[in-house]
Write a structure and sequence with these properties.
Keywords: Plasmid. By secondary structure, the protein is mainly alpha-helical. Helices cover about 45% and strands about 5% of the residues. Among the domains are: about 60 residues, 434 Repressor (Amino-terminal Domain); about 30 residues. It is elongated and about 115 Å long. It starts with 13 loop residues before the first helix and ends with a helix. The mean pLDDT is about 80.
Length: about 140
């Protein structure tokens, strides 16, 4: 891939691309009709392409895009607009949790391992009901 070219414009939007193509036409000293003739487009089509944002305008299609680039003697170059983010290297000292296990307190319920804090209201209600039932049982035993 050849990189020996002169950069004429940078475009980030369709509007920017169309403005750059219009500037290129004017730099070459061509009228819109001359571009139509040189590119093999129908008469008046370059004007419609340059007025793409109006009701009477047209947008570039794949065929007209190729023809315009050839008529202007330019090409399209894609470039990355920002450098890729650096990937951090693995450093175990930066981890908040131990990878070896046991770093978190766990509650065992049967065969399931539950982390603390799940369903706290339900657990608190069940504990209160169990305490009330135990207190009621003690009262009944004392009454007998």
């Amino acid at each position: 891939m050849s990189t020996d070219h002169e950069t004429l414009a940078y475009c980030w939007t369709y509007c920017g691309l169309m403005n750059a193509l219009k500037v290129r036409r004017k730099e070459l000293g061509l009228s819109q009709l001359e571009v139509d003739d040189k590119a093999g487009l129908q008469d008046g089509y370059c004007g419609k392409l340059e007025a793409w944002d109006r009701d009477s305008g047209r947008r570039l299609g794949p065929v007209s895009f190729d023809l315009l680039l050839a008529a202007y003697g330019v090409g399209l170059v894609l470039f990355e607009t920002r450098p890729p983010a650096e990937r951090p290297e693995y450093d175990p000292s930066q981890l908040g949790l131990s990878l070896e296990g046991g770093g978190m307190r766990r509650h065992h319920d049967g065969e399931f391992v539950r982390l603390p804090g799940r369903n706290r209201r339900r657990e608190a209600k069940a504990a209160a009901e169990a305490a009330a039932a135990e207190a009621l049982l003690e009262i009944r035993e004392a009454a007998e």
